Amino acid sequence: MSTDFLPLLRKNAGEEISALAEDHLKHDLHPADRDLLKSGTSKISTHVTIGSAVGLALGGFLAFRLRRTRTHMFNAFRAHEKPTHVKFADGREEAIPDLTPYMRPTALGDIATYTFVGLGGLFLGGQIGILTGAGSSQRLIARDPEAKKRIDTAFRKIRADVLRQEADTSDKRTSVTRPLGL
Q1: What is residue 60's predicted lDDT score, i.e. its pLDDT?
Q2: Quick one: which of 127, 116, 132, 131 has its CA closest to 8?
Q3: What is the CA radius of gyration of the chain?
Q4: How far apart (Å, rounded) are the C-alpha atoms in residues 80 and 101?
Q5: Are the CB atoms for 4 and 11 separated by under 8 Å?
Q6: What is the predicted pLDDT for the residue at 177?
Q7: Residue 172 burial class via C-beta count within 10 angstroms: exposed 0-12, middle 13-18, buried 19 and up
Q8: Side-chain half-sphere of 50: how many Cα atoms within 13 Å?
Q9: Strands (E), 21-145
């Protein structure tokens, strides 16, 4: 299973691609452009960190509220008078089992609630942080049209070189595997 859905666990590019990108960024951009890119990436990192922290806090708060509501509902259910028998039309009576012990909140349920709701908040906060950070970074770069043009050109060159490198790697393979061995 891939872990690319979590921003924290996404794999970085290979060593060759990273070296290729660094080479392009050194030769195709001015120092001010590189500083602009670094400040843009730090904005994204800051937004992801803040978003994850806020998401985790909100997830914990929601888990606390959910647990408290469940406890109140259980207490209200337990205190309410419940029928103990059902009388049918033919006159026979059947006992209704008491479900109270099965509805009681447990420590395992509390742990699961805090874990899953907290992690859901962390995930959602991190993803929202990526979106807001990317937008903020894009606005930062768009302030200087000349730098934006140079950065776009450098990234197009990097993308073209990466595609060439992948094509060369693909051409060097001697055996081609076919699906289902056909």
Answers
A1: 95
A2: 127
A3: 29
A4: 14
A5: yes
A6: 58
A7: exposed
A8: 10
A9: 85-87, 93-95
* DSSP β-bridge partners for residue 86: 94
Lowest mean pLDDT among 39-43, 45-49, 73-77, 128-132: 73-77
Cα–Cα distance between 111 and 113 in angstroms, integer? 5
3 state SS of 52: helix
Cα of first residue to Cα of last residue in the chain, in angstroms, is 27
Tokens (6 digits) for 53: 């922290």
Average pLDDT of the residues of the chain: 85
Angle between helix 145-172 and helix 31-79 axes, rounded to 10 deg: 80
Question: What would the pLDDT profile of 103-123 be if each residue is shown by its tens digit?
Answer: 888 999 999 999 999 999 999
**Residue 8: pLDDT band by 50, 70, 90 thresholds?**
very low
